[in-house]
């Protein structure tokens, strides 16, 4: 891909170099504006895991998946160095994604636009901010961009060395944050369908099996470390207990709905001195939780597909349930990062200012995302699966440029996942 740059005319090359230089300049300026890295209570969890020996079971199945603690370990738990590496990884990953997206666009005049669009999107405050926060979001988002880039590189021309790149980036992404394991399972399911139905694409079954193995390992690690318990209690208190129909569903599946449990409604797992964990009146609930809670929640999501799809997209300014934020930040607390969603402002490092005018950009992003999801679900699925251009051309009759369609639709998961992961 890079070796072809020499064949590009100087004017066309400038259309790529100019936005890339502007992008690098803005990202570097942002780095120098940050006065100090931001730490949270969860930062200590990562540093403690990073201090564990690699042969320790606590490192591989502890309170967080291993990718981020591994990075911290390699960098000696040096926060300043970690922040610089996270920023560099972010710049590299999104730049490569921009190159891969542009390379698949068939219309020559549209390639620089696609290239610049990815770079502009990656400067969203909800992406850039995390580079100087000592949590797992920055690395997870960067690996997501790199994972999509590697997919686009693979579908352009299948090579087994490219498959290895996809696999390596994939496992690091899966173990950056636990929700990524479920995302890779969905990708594996569709790949298995493609490989099973189309005889000429049986090679996708290999990736399907590998991705299923990734999910199984991620799920086993999460179970051993009981990492799912805290976010589950937050989801239960914030999204299940306040709605009677949802509460009834869980009650019908064995959850003991007691006055003590209903008092947890609209609260957090850590509220009232960790009552979810310590209140003797909730002992029966805790027994049900560890025995049947996770499976019941999975069944609930599968039996309510409209809720499962729409809830994450209904309002991207809902409180960050997985992080367990105790309260949305007030407007006065958001002055250093006024462009951020209210639940993210408290995470912003000192000196951080959004590069882009976030409120109008965020509205545009979500309008675009919802439109793609509602009107192009089938085509998005095809793109994620990396089906061949001939198949897409048969299904999508309005497209004369299948690879252009593939590029535009395959980049949409970046929009969806990046927003979902941060809020």
Keywords:
423 residues, disordered C terminus, single chain, 66% helix, mainly alpha
Protein architecture, described:
- The protein has 423 residues and is mostly helical.
- The protein has 2 domains: 2-177 and 179-226 and 326-421, no CATH class; 229-303.
- The protein is built from 22 helices and no strands.
- It has helices at 10-33, 41-50, 57-60, 67-74, 79-104, 111-121, 125-128, 137-156, 160-174, 179-197, 204-225, 229-240, 244-252, 259-262, 271-278, 283-303, 305-314, 358-375, 377-385, 389-395, 402-410, 412-421.
- Helix 2 (41-50) crosses helix 4 (67-74) and helix 8 packs antiparallel against helix 22.
- The chain is globular.
- The chain starts with 9 loop residues before the first helix and ends with a helix.
- The relative contact order is 0.11.
- The model is unreliable at 317-340 and 372-423 (pLDDT under 50).
Number of strands: 0
Beta-strand content bin: under 5%
Distance between the termini: 35 Å
| Global Rg | 22 Å
Number of helices: 22
Strand pairing plus helix content: what structural class? mainly alpha
What is the N-to-C succession of helices and strands?
Answer: HHHHHHHHHHHHHHHHHHHHHH
Percentage of residues in helical conformation:
55-70%
Unreliable spans are: 317-340, 372-423
Mean pLDDT reading: 78
Using the alpha-carbon principal axes, give the shape. globular
Number of domains: 2
Question: Could you give a short account of the major beta sheet?
Answer: none
């Amino acid at each position: 891909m890079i070796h072809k740059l020499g064949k590009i005319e100087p004017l066309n090359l400038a259309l790529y170099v100019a936005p890339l230089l502007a992008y690098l300049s803005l990202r570097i300026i942002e780095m120098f504006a940050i006065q100090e890295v931001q730490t949270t209570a969860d930062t200590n969890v990562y540093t403690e895991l990073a201090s564990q020996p690699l042969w320790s079971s606590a490192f591989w199945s502890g309170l967080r998946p291993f990718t981020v603690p591994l990075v911290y370990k390699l960098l000696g738990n040096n926060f300043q160095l970690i922040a610089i590496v996270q920023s560099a990884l972010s710049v590299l990953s999104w730049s490569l994604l921009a190159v891969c997206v542009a390379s698949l666009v068939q219309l020559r005049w549209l390639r620089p636009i696609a290239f610049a669009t990815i770079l502009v999107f990656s400067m969203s405050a909800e992406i850039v901010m995390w580079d100087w926060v000592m949590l797992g979001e920055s690395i997870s988002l960067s690996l997501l961009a790199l994972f999509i880039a590697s997919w686009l590189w693979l579908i352009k021309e299948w090579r087994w060395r490219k498959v290895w790149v996809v696999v390596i980036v994939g496992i690091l992404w899966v173990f950056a944050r636990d929700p990524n394991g479920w995302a890779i399972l969905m990708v594996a399911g569709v790949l298995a369908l493609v490989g099973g139905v189309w005889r000429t694409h049986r090679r996708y079954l290999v990736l399907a099996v590998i991705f299923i193995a990734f999910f199984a390992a991620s799920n086993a690690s999460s179970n051993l470390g009981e990492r799912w318990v805290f976010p589950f209690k937050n989801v239960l208190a914030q999204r299940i207990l306040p709605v009677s129909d949802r509460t009834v569903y869980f009650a019908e599946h064995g959850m003991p709905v007691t006055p003590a449990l209903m008092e947890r409604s609209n609260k957090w797992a850590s509220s009232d001195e960790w009552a979810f964990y310590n209140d003797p009146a909730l002992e029966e609930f805790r027994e049900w939780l560890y025995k049947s809670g996770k499976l019941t929640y999975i069944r609930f999501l599968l039996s309510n597909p409209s809720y499962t799809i729409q809830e994450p997209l209904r309002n991207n300014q809902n409180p960050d349930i997985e992080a367990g934020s105790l309260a949305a930040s007030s407007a006065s607390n958001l002055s250093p990062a006024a462009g951020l969603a209210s639940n993210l402002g408290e995470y912003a490092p000192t000196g951080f200012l959004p590069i882009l005018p976030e409120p109008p950009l965020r509205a545009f992003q979500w309008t675009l995302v919802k439109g793609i999801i509602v009107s192009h679900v089938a085509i998005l699925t095809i793109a994620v699966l990396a089906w061949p251009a001939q198949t897409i051309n048969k299904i999508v009759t309005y497209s004369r440029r299948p690879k252009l369609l593939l590029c535009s639709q395959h980049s949409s998961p970046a929009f969806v996942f990046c927003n979902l992961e941060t809020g």
